[in-house]
Amino acid sequence: MRFLRTCLAAAVSTLAIGQAFAEEDFVPEKITVEERIKPGPNVFAVDQSWTGASRINVVGAGELDRKGNLSVGLVTQFVLTKDKKTAYTASAYAKRITYGPTEAVLQEFDIETMSVKREIIVSPKMAQVAPQKSLLALSADEKYAFVQNATPATSVSVVDLTAGKEIAEVPTPGCWSIHPALSGIQFSTLCGDGTLQTFTVTADGKFEAPLKSEKIFDADTDPLYVVGERAGDKLIFMSFNGNVYSIFDKDGAPKLVDKFSITEGVEGGWAPGGIEVIAYNAANDVLFVTMHPDAKEGSHKDAATEIWPVDMKAKKVLYRSAVEGVKSIAVTQGETPTLFGLNDDEGILTRYAIDPEAKFAAKQTGKLEEMGSFAPLVFVGE
User: Fold this and answer.
1) What residues does each domain of the chain span?
2) Which residues are connected by disulfide bridges in this protein (predicted)?
């Protein structure tokens, strides 16, 4: 009997508490979305996915604070406009993931609002490969986009951004990468026979045979990374062995104007390593290079343990700064630059202050983790 009274009392108490809670006004939580990201310069880290949506992480360059991300398709490529207000991505949307048709889409994003402005369908031949800056590019006037294709036959799709449509597919057999010219609907590409070829397209999508350089490099003994940096009227490339190539591409066929080594006579078997292995600061005419020791055949993708600033005029290494796990770099363009490094294996973004008074030594000033499971590409938006 005592047990029954205890149970009844507990039940009455529970009902009373429930009634008290029921009498209180329920205030639902309101979820809001900021219309615009915080102002200030940004860093963009590409987290490419082969199994689902890729994303572009947008991070404040000053505080390394997360501002948001852009969600895109499979195996995305990425490029920024010169004013850093607009971004373009090229990615695949597979209807059945493992088989069936694939739709390739060039998407245009407004950075300030982190929103899609429009989409342009491009050739499904779009190269589904690891991201690199030389696989999606804009013309000098930013009125056209160039998209690298591979089936595995290589070609480049030319997209009229004003009309919002693809106007040409330019065959580039034996060549790979896109390096826009200083003017016009024109780009150069690296070729397996050691040459560069320059293609010109008209506004109505017509093109003729390319202008071909003399042999500039040997793909067997001194292959080049396909990433190139623009330095005025020249393109700068780095070889697997540590040779810097400067190629004039303003008029006519590309021409080699300078070549020098940054590793000759250096002990330890040093060589460039990573993905985006070079970053150029025009204000100081300095090229930053990701370097690793004990280089061997196949180690050209190994992460850097040092970053070397190279004086392009004096043709010499100024300093050697220790870093950890960096595979891609980007640098700001001021006289006192800031360099950003990305560790794609661990998804770590690192910021380095560069001191011109100390031979462009790099000092770590910030680090941000969880950039993604495959984050191999970094851009700076000043």
Assistant:
1) 32-120, 262-382
2) 175-191
| Structure confidence by residue, pLDDT tens digits, 42-83 | 999 999 998 889 999 999 999 999 999 999 999 999 999 999
The helix or strand, by DSSP H or E, that contains position 322, with its residue range, turns out to be: strand 321-326
Spell out the SS3 assignment of 76-143: EEEEECCCCCEEEEEEEEECCCCCCCEEEEEEEEECCCCEEEEEEEECCCECCCCCCHHHEEECCCCC
CB atoms within 10 A of CB 251: 12
> For 32-120, CATH number?
2.40.10
SS3 category, 15: helix
CA dist 88 and 280 (Å) reads: 22
pLDDT tens for residues 52-62? Answer: 899 999 999 99
The residue written with tokens 């009373």 in the block is: 16
What amino acid is encoded at 238 in this protein? M
Q: Is the peptide bond before 131 cis (omega within 30 degrees of 0)?
A: no
CATH code, 262-382:
2.130.10.10
Sign of CA dihedral 104, 110, 115, 117: negative
E runs forming strands in 193-281: 196-200, 211-212, 229-231, 234-238, 243-248, 255-261, 271-272, 278-281
- In 3D, which of 46, 40, 84 has the Cα closest to residue 63? 40
Asked if residues 262 and 313 have their Cβ atoms less than 8 Å apart, the reply is no
Cβ atoms within 10 Å, residue 262: 21
Residue 253's SS3 state is: coil
State the pTM of this model: 0.90
CB 89 within 8 A of CB 122: no
Alpha helices in 158-294 (DSSP H): none
Distance, in Å, from the CA atom of 187 to the CA atom of 257, rounded to the nearest integer, reads: 18
What is d(CA 242, CA 343) in angstroms, rounded to the nearest whole number? 21
Cα 134 to chain centroid distance, Å, stands at 9
